[in-house]
Amino acid sequence: MVDSLCMSSVKSPMIGVVGGGQLAQMLAQAAKSRAVDVVVQSGSAIDPAAVEATRLVLADPVDVEATGKLVQGCCGVTFENEWVDIEALIPLEQQGVCFSPSLTALAPLVDKISQRQLLRDLDLPSPDWTLLSSISFAQPELPREWNFPVMAKSSRWGYDGKGTKVLKSVEDLSQLLRSVDPTQWLLESWVPFEKELAIVVSRDAQGRVRSLPLAETHQFQQVCDWVIAPASVDHAVEMMAYNMAASLLTELNYVGVLAVEFFYGPDGLQVNEVAPRTHNSAHFSIEACSSSQFDQQLCIAAGLPVPETHLHAPGALMVNLLGLQKGGESSLDERLAKLRSCDRFHLHWYGKDCETPGRKLGHVTVLLNGVDAPSRQLEAETALKHIRSIWPTQDTVCA
After folding, report:
1. Is residue 364 annotated as involved in ligand binding?
2. What is the mean pLDDT of the chain?
3. Which of 233, 296, 326, 341 could pair covalently with 237 via S-S, beta carbons 3.0-4.6 A apart?
4. Is 191 annotated as a binding residue?
């Protein structure tokens, strides 16, 4: 039987984190400022969060028996990502483990098909979609009024361009049908958009919702390249994004941090994807906000009062650092030294064991001082050019 958890009498809070990558690492770093101990369940002792953890449970994050060891002494347990076996974790929750978000809230979000069904049930706008299994093997064709290209997505395990395919023809569609399990894939109609936006929100155990600024994200080969916040959009768009995210939190009785990605264009604001966790699009909040996304997650998991969060700089730029091909570029040490030599650059290095092409190795945040959106945009473009002169965008992403 799991010891009683989430007790207010715990003097030195300790939380558990399932997963040991950079999101868990930044959570553990945030915990130090609040004197909260962090136990991490990770598959390698050299994973980014392992060196930051108070205690390490060395096991694959989907190993539920190991999670049973992780939770001992913890007042709450949270997740680095949504790749968890919810059914297997239910007995732990029934024994008193306080997961945030709860398994019930997490369940419809871990699968893109159930995500789309949830959005439809809530009348939240999102791209038209259909199950790949609804397409005939014998005579594959798109639903009526659809045109190529279309986006195909795996229902699970997709990230940073993995688990997605752009289909440009009937031949592409036929090939996909032959190469995957159609019941585990969906098709989305192509969305013409002007901007990609993202918002990270949190909801505490009392039902209070807090929001980080709406951000504009820029992708390269379906991987986040850079982010600027706040997004340069009308206030009505910002409020609509917040209301959509808050509706999801409330409907699911969700306690934790959640990210919503949007397309914005001629058809208005549409939900692209929902991530039930902290998110790359809000890494800027560590330097730019009074309470970062990781501080929000920490306080909720540990049962601490959750602070309001707001920008304490006019804006921020966040630039991802992806692994480069060997040869033709400066060495890793040279690139890092150049980034560290600039006082305005806040470098976050994840400490991963090797540089492989496309792998997320770190990020740089630059606070923006412009008093209006155009001046911040110009400032961000100048800083981005400087960063990319030191650390180019990888031509071929293979994270």
Report:
1. no
2. 93
3. 233
4. yes
